[in-house]
Write a structure and sequence with these properties.
The complex is a heterodimer. By secondary structure, chain A is α+β, with helices and mostly antiparallel strands. Chain A has a four-stranded mixed beta sheet, with helices on one face. In chain A, strand 1 and strand 2 form a beta hairpin. The model of chain A has no long low-confidence stretch (mean pLDDT about 85). By secondary structure, chain B is mainly alpha-helical. The radius of gyration of chain B is 30 Å and the shape is rod-shaped. The termini of chain B are far apart. The chains are: A alpha+beta, B mainly alpha. Chains A and B meet through helix 1 and strand 4 of A and helix 1, helix 4 and helix 5 of B.
């Protein structure tokens, strides 16, 4: 599976890692909704670390990503806006 | 919201896809318009230049504030040595404010530096992908039937399109941050324009009540008190005999005359 960390780059993950990322991704939604800043940061950092543990795609590789994580510096506020409409990309 | 559709990564991905759909067909853009690609890269370069300009401005302010801190500290000592505690206090209040502005600037300069590095990296990546696309397209056209080539080219174009959308997001974030820093730089400029950090010996104390009042609001008087006490202790009882303080006394007295 190919994961992009927005504004950073793309990584190729093996199936096991991809499954783990999906789990964390589901948890993240819950944390965002609870408004727990510390929990959000911790969980999101874990996801970033997991994505970065994959092999980074070379600059000249032209692949579409299967999933795209938000930019590493996203705030809880911005993350919650992702679910209510006006997010990083309006619409 | 829970479940597959509610996943953060799915939401972001869907939005990027939507953005790509709304944009000109990336395949077509990439296929025909070398100028469009160069325009895109130029935009990123311009974004980087904007960030650098903002960073330089903050760096200049930071240097200026550092000089002012040193100057105001000296003036406070001189005033105290000359027995003008009120003037020493005023100088220390200004120094405290300048120091706190300095502390605010530092992380912002670092932040802009990070943005600059990030955008430079983004630009390099996008350039490589555009180049790879051009090459790949020629190879595909030479090796496949027209219909098959179309599919393959369009797939590669999606990869580049995603990169373009991503660079767009990185630029937007950098610009938003730069905008915030501009506001901060503006605020410091205004403090300066109001004469907040001016040479105290040049001040006509009668005409600066407004600044003094604002300073009292902005600076913690306990910090100023503590620093004043420390300075007094350093000068020692009956200070004023040492050569260093002799030098200070002249300036202090000059400042005192205006009061």
């Amino acid at each position: 599976m190919i994961v992009r960390i927005a504004t950073e780059g793309q990584y190729r993950l093996e199936d096991g890692q991809a499954a783990k990322l999906n789990e964390l991704d589901n948890e993240l939604v819950a944390v965002v909704q609870s408004g727990d800043e510390e929990g959000f940061r911790g969980l999101f950092d874990q996801m970033l670390a997991l994505a970065r543990s994959g092999a980074e795609l070379r600059d000249e590789e032209l692949e579409e990503s299967d999933v795209i994580l938000p930019p590493p510096d996203i705030s809880l506020q911005e993350a919650s806006e992702e679910f209510t409409g006006e997010g990083l990309i309006p619409g | 919201m829970a479940g597959m559709a509610g996943r953060m990564s799915t939401v972001i991905k869907a939005k990027i896809s939507k953005l790509l759909d709304r944009a000109e067909d990336p395949g077509e853009t990439l296929d025909y318009s070398y100028e469009k690609q160069m325009e895109l890269l130029q935009n990123v370069k311009k974004g980087i230049a904007d960030v650098v300009t903002s960073k330089k401005r903050l760096q200049m302010q930071s240097q200026k504030l550092e000089q002012q801190v040193v100057k105001l500290d000296t003036q406070a000592r001189q005033a105290l040595a000359a027995g003008n505690e009120e003037l020493a206090r005023a100088a220390l209040e200004r120094k405290t404010l300048a120091q706190s502005e300095l502390q605010n600037l530092d992380p912002q300069i670092k932040e802009l530096e990070a943005q600059q590095d990030q955008l430079t990296e983004n630009e390099k990546k996008l350039r490589a992908k555009l180049e790879a696309f051009r090459t790949k397209k020629e190879v595909i056209k030479a090796q496949y039937s027209a219909a098959e080539a179309q599919v393959q080219i369009s797939e590669a174009a999606t990869g580049v399109g995603e990169e373009m959308a991503d660079v767009g997001m990185a630029m937007q974030r950098a610009m938003d941050k730069t905008e915030n820093m501009r506001a901060r730089a503006q605020a410091v400029d205004e403090l300066e324009k109001a004469g907040t950090f001016e040479d105290l010996t040049q001040l006509d104390s009668g005409g600066n009540d407004d600044i003094d009042r604002q300073l009292k609001e902005l600076t913690s008087s306990s910090d100023v008190d503590a620093e004043l006490a420390k300075m007094k202790a350093e000068l020692g009882p009956g200070g004023g005999d040492s050569p260093a303080l002799e030098a200070g006394r002249g300036a202090g007295e000059k400042a005192g005359e205006g009061a």
